[in-house]
Amino acid sequence: MKNITFINNKFVKHSNAKISIEDRGFLFADSIYELISVFDNNAIDTDQHLDRLESSLKEIKIKYKFNKNKFKKVFEKLIKVNNVINGYIYIQITRGVAERKHEFPKNYSPTTIVFTKHLNIDKKIYKNGVKIITIEDLRWLRRDIKSTSLLPNILSKQIAVEKNAFESWLIDDGVITEGSSSNAWIITNSNTIITHPANNKILKGVTRETLIKILKKNNFKIKEKPFNLIEAKNAKEAFLTSSTLSVLPVVKIDNYNISNGKPGDVTKKIINLYNDYIFKNKSSISKELKIA
Ligand code: PDD
């Protein structure tokens, strides 16, 4: 199967896509990224991801000739040549190659890479739900920037995996901010859906934003406000969202069962609404994925 990657304006064989060991992305994580899901050959919420990419570039002050349409053409080409049916597009932009000094180089040309991956997510996790653990949020205070500086995220995910959990939810100042690579949600006994407000303490997930719109349109009660561990454990239901996972039920928090340890009805409805959004013109697949 063909695997073509875009690197600095060229399409090359994935195995030939190489960057310098002096790239600031490699040396300092002086770099930002995006991940766009592909379902049934379609990139999901491309505009929103590209807007966030542009905003991350601005926030870390990388001078870049940003061209949305050019990115879209690159994505289309990669999906086609790599025959990505279900998977994702990964984009990373670094401040480029320079002598290793912390301050920005005077002149630099940013490194851009775009590659695709196939993904086959086990449907069982949607049927059964997943267990998460909670852990202290050790990250910096600009979590709204989609930076590749992800050490606290990967360390907390690793602890989750070692405890046979799917994800870790991070606690900052007594409040659950988000997951190590996803946004966190609870549903109260009065059916109010709660997620942390989009500020510097979380990544404003594209899936989160899309879902909020879908929920409001469908008259769900939704509140963007912080919630703590006690509220999470007492919740009627819980779930997480991300581009690769869409909406995934959470049924256990730190060994404490949520909604009897099974995905709840409201979460199932939400999954179906989100899947309908993704597959709006592809009803056959939408039906296949329905779990309620
Ligand atoms: N992670 N919060 C964090 C810390 C994340 O890393 C992610 C996504 C999200 C959800 O954002 P979105 O809905 O835009 O995917 C929230 C991606 C998938 C990753 O790094 O693999």
What proportion strand?
25-35%
**CATH topology term of the largest domain:** D-amino Acid Aminotransferase, Chain A, domain 2
CATH architecture of the largest domain: Alpha-Beta Barrel
How many separate helices?
9
Task: Return the structural class.
Answer: alpha+beta
Measured distance between first and last alpha carbons = 36 Å
Query: Mean of residue pLDDT?
Result: 95
Rg computed from alpha carbons, rounded to a whole number of angstroms: 20 Å
Please report the first level of CATH classification, the CATH class of the largest domain. Answer: Alpha Beta
State the helical fraction.
Answer: 25-40%
The secondary-structure element order is EEHEEHHEEHEHEEEEHEHEEEHH
- Which residues form runs of ≥5 with pLDDT under 50? 283-292
* Tally of DSSP β-strands: 15
What is the makeup of the main sheet? 9 strands, mixed
Q: What compounds are bound to the protein?
A: N-(5'-phosphopyridoxyl)-D-alanine
Shape: globular
In short, what is this structure?
With 292 residues, this protein is α+β, with helices and mostly antiparallel strands. It has helices at residues 24-28, 46-59, 68-81, 124-128, 151-162, 206-217, 229-233, 265-278, 283-289; strands spanning 4-7, 10-13, 31-39, 42-43, 87-94, 111-118, 130-136, 167-172, 175-179, 183-187, 192-195, 221-224, 237-242, 246-253, 256-257. It has two domains: 4-118, Aminotransferase class 4, branched-chain amino acid transferase, N-terminal domain (D-amino Acid Aminotransferase, Chain A, domain 1); 124-278, D-amino Acid Aminotransferase, subunit A, domain 2 (D-amino Acid Aminotransferase, Chain A, domain 2).
